[in-house]
Design brief:
The protein has one domain (2-9, 19-204). The chain contains 9 helices and no strands. The chain has helices at 2-16, 20-32, 34-56, 59-65, 67-97, 111-123, 126-135, 146-173, 181-204.
């Protein structure tokens, strides 16, 4: 139980530190609403559990040890963040040129799109690979079975999911502010720039 509490605390601290997951949940909540943000949070939580399982079976260690594999993950993650960021910036620039009546304030993000962006943002994050490769082995016994691995994955997903679900609901409460066309376009541009910056940071790290 003590080990699980330490593990859960480490996951919580890592989740709270702003990064690609934080930016993606915030972006999707601001653009698609509270439900879109919550589905994004669930995607991130699943990504966390994928990393725990992959690390437990040594797959993450193999990726971290292979320069080529690690580079592929890093470039793919960076490219995905830059792609989403550029899309947000282009959308913001288009919205600025539209009259208020022509601005679509209810731009819909489907549950699947939100979930997918959360999952891919986490799974393609090379920093997550390094973090879990260093963390998880400390909580795995030599003869660990699927029950222990599943338990760690469930704890990680639960802690991470609760944090980002709370974030999505908090940002959702403030969403009325984003109904202002100029504010919405500005927020879209800023979050897009943040995602692009994060993408370049991931690629250069």
């Amino acid at each position: 139980m003590t080990a699980l509490m330490v593990f859960a605390t480490a996951i919580l601290i890592a989740s709270i530190v702003p990064g690609p997951d934080f930016a993606m949940v915030t972006r999707n909540t601001m653009l698609g609403g509270r439900v879109a943000g919550m589905w994004t949070a669930l995607g991130v939580a699943l990504g966390i559990s994928v990393w725990v399982v992959a690390t437990s079976f040594g797959l993450a260690a193999l990726l971290a040890a292979s320069v080529l594999a690690f580079t592929v993950v890093k470039i793919a993650g960076a490219a995905y963040l830059v792609y989403l960021g550029v899309r947000s910036i282009i959308s913001a620039l288009k919205d600025r040129k539209k009259p208020v009546g022509g601005l679509n304030l209810s731009r819909e993000i489907t549950h699947w799109q939100a979930f997918r962006t959360g999952l891919l943002t986490n799974v393609l994050n090379p920093k997550a690979l390094v973090f879990f490769t260093a963390l998880v082995p400390q909580f795995i016994d030599g003869g660990s079975g699927l029950v222990q691995i599943g338990g760690l994955a469930a704890v990680a997903a639960a802690v991470n999911g609760v944090w980002f679900l709370a974030l999505a609901n908090l940002v959702g409460l403030l969403r009325k502010v984003f109904d202002n066309p100029s504010v919405r376009a500005w927020i879209n541009g800023v979050t897009g720039a943040v995602l692009v910056a994060l993408g370049f940071r991931v690629a250069s790290s």
